[in-house]
Structure formats: structure tokens, C-alpha cells
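# nightly structure sweep
# worker-07 picked up a monomer target from the shared queue
# config: single-sequence mode, recycle default, output format = C-alpha cells
# input follows
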Amino acid sequence: MSEAVSTGLLDRTIRRITTVWRDMASGVPDETLEAQMRTCLAGRGGEVSARNRAAKLAETYLAADEPGRRDFLRTLASFDSDPDAVAAAYAAVTAAEDPAERSAAKAELRRALEPPRLKLLTQFVSIPDGCKFLVDLRGALLRLRGSDKMLTALDADLRGLLAAWFDIGFLELRRIDWNSPAALLEKLVTYESVHAVRSWRDLKNRLDADRRCYGFFHPRMPGEPLIFVEVALVKGLAGSVQDLLNEKAPVLDPAVADSAIFYSISNCQAGLAGISFGNFLIKRVVEELSGEFSNLKTFATLSPIPGFRRWLDTLLASDPEGLLSDDESVSLVSAHPADSGCAALAGIIGKRSWWRHSAVRQAAEPVLVRLCARYLMAESKRNRALDPVAHFHLSNGARVERLNMLGDTSDKGARESATLMVNYLYDPAKIEEWHEDYAGEGKRNASTAVRKLARGWS
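# output follows
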């Protein structure tokens, strides 16, 4: 369903905006790409002429194929600072003899360093859907830039602009429900990146009375969510995403729920990569839900562990000494005959629906839970949690609360995390403290049970 909806939505959007831009650009003469850009920079004529030229340039980009778009981006990147002007401005800074003169020289140096392409980029904002155009332009740039230094420099400029324009102070938090516009609901289906929406019935279930969905929106892109979070109002910590998404489960009265479970957070705009909203979104939603339901005492996630199997498979292949206890190895080999406990565990989790066999699950589950705790609590990359979702939540001020075997029994869940999911707890009274622990010292806060599991290899 997602692919069909996504394709139809994209086609309709492109047809609409290209028609608008084509009408605006109808009186603009045809020129080469570089000439178009120079004409835009020259700024001849009034505001309407400038908008029409920007629309013509945007239409040129959108009509191009992939190689043509890369050529567009490289041509745009070529409008760089004048090296002679930069050198002269820098010389003036070094020659300045007093603070006032040096300050004025530095201001001139900043002006000289500003590349003309920045002016071109900002001109797109004046046209209809121009802000969305720039966001999508950066999405393509991230995909196409590779090791190209010119495109990397262009990305740095565009990222700086978008970071300023999409500052959290400009964003609006909105609840999305079944009565939201159909086009917006289609976008939820398209952008859901954690647990794919299977049908309209599935989507309706996610927006029922015991569910909440919130997104951040920008005033220049009112119909486009930047990021959204899906929340289930339940009793106790949820341990299975299949249970949460069960369309046949009875709807719970939110007034008797004591826990809000954040089970999916999806970034919607590839062009805003590196501009973080998720930490602000969770905190804002906690505030919203606390105000709406005084009965909610627990705020936690039910999160995937996308890097666990990749890490575990590599580890099992190397068969390190001390990874498994003697008892664990004997139990695993008994359940799945192999030359070693590591080979047995690798064979077990490599089979489809292995957990349906009670003897196999009994042998594998305690080992998987222990190793997953170790992965989340001890494995690092550049002093940050190796798992990207763990890093995200720990950075936001959460703690690792509980591991859930069979948390996600989908093919994706088995492939990425051997069905394990994790609850990260957000305690409003501790968020800032736990954030500082992780950001400042690399300390990963966790419940006593998780800390005990993660202590040592055996």
C-alpha cells in the first residue's frame, strides 16, 4: 500500500507545482542553465520578474533527469565566492591596527566569503512551494554529492539556510487524527518508516480514541509533516508491537490508561537530515499528553534495535572466548546441533520463525536478552551508543528500561533484532539529568534489571 500511495501522491504534487511554475515562467526567455542563474543573480526588473525567473529555474531542475539534476547542482555550486575579493578582505583584517578597524574588516570578509549561490537559493523561497522545493533539492543533493567537494560545499550552504529557517521556534505541533485532510493521511502512510501501514483500516486503528499522533509542521509547508510520532495509551509497559497494532483489539478508554507508549517516530523530509526535531517533539508530546490526561504516569517508547543482529552476527562468526557460558553453550547445542554454542545460536536465529519451537526458544531467549543488554549498554562508536535508536533516545534524556523478547515478530524485526524490542523510559523529572549524563560523560542510564543483564559477558 505504501508504495502505491507514495507514487500517486508524488505524481499529483509534481503535476500541480510544475503547472504553477510553468504559468509563472511563461514569459521568461529560454537560456542556458548558467545564463538563467546569472540572470537571476542580476536581479533586473521588479519582484514579479524575479519570482518568475526563479520559477523558470525551478522548473528546469524538476524537468531534468538524474544526470541533468546533478549538472544543475554542480552549476549552482560553481557560483562561489570571488577568491580575489576574499584575499583582499583577509589582508585588510590582518592589516587592521585597532579593534574597531578590525571589526569592520571582519564584517567585509564575511560579505566577501558569502557565495552568490546563497542568493540563488533564497530566491526559490519566493515561489509557491519554494520552501519544499529547497528541502527536496537538498535531499537530492545528499544522494548525489558523493565525494564531490563542490557539491559538499553547496550542501553546507543549503544546510545552514534550512537549519535557520526550520528552527524549532518556527515549528507548530499539531495532532493528526482520522478527521485530518485525506492528503495528510496519505502522507502518514508514505512517510511511516518504522512500522509500515498495511491498509486504511490499519491507519484508522492507529488514530483511534486510545491512540495519538502528533507532528511538527512549518508555516511555509503547512501540509507537509517534518516528523511525526505515534503514541498508544495503554495500561503498563507495552512489550509487543504486534499487540499494539492489532486491529481487532478492543479500544481502551484513555481515562483508565496509565502509560503513553511512543512506538513509531518517522522523519519525513530527507532534505532535513542532520536538523534534529525528534528530541523536541517527544518532550512537547509528553507535555501535551500530561495536560490532557492526568492519569498518565509512565512515558516510554517501544523501540526497534536495528543494529543488534548485524552486531551479533559478526560476533557469533568470530566465536570469541567467554561470550557464552558453558551452560549456555550446552543448552544451545542441544536445541540446535552445531560445533559450538555460537554456531548453534547463529543457526537458530537464521531460521524463519525459530521462536515458535519451545525448546529452541527456551535455549536462545536468555542468551539473546543478555547479549542485547550488553549491546545497548556497552557497545560504542566514537563515545556514543552503537545502536542509532539507542543513541537518539539516550541523547534525549531517556533510560533503557526493559528488553522484550518477541517484541517484533515481523520479518523485519527478526532480521534486524532477533525479534527483540526495548522500552526507553522518559521521566519528566529526570530527562535533563539523564541527558547530561549521556551527553557529558557518555553514561547510559538503565533500570536495575537491564544493568544486571549487561554486567560482563557471562
